[in-house]
From TrEMBL:
Signal peptide: none annotated. It comes from the Bacteria. The lineage of its organism: Bacteria, Bacillati, Actinomycetota, Actinomycetes, Mycobacteriales. Residues 41-77 form the Zinc finger CGNR domain. This is CGNR zinc finger domain-containing protein.
Length: 84
């Protein structure tokens, strides 16, 4: 689907079988980022990740369980280093 303006200046969604995949990805990205939902897109809090993700839960901080495990492991290591 693409946007097309007719002679009257009305913009409509038009299905196009030959719509390039890049255009679909760009359109959906803009739609997601422009959402008014405050939980629509977040930046992963894990160090060295930096991926954007759509949270499945209100308190989700990381894009994947792997990033969450890496952060928790790092926190445990830092806590044990301070105890020594």
């Amino acid at each position: 689907m693409v946007l097309k303006m007719d002679e009257g200046g009305v913009v409509r969604h038009v299905d196009r079988a030959d719509c390039p995949p890049d255009a679909v990805v760009a359109r959906e990205t803009l739609r997601l980022i422009g959402s008014t939902n405050e939980f629509a897109v977040r930046l992963c809090d894990a160090p060295s990740c930096g991926m954007f993700f759509v949270p499945r839960r209100r308190n989700q901080e990381w894009c994947t369980t792997r990033c969450g495990a890496r952060v928790r492991s790092s926190r445990r290591y830092e806590a044990s280093s301070r105890l020594e």
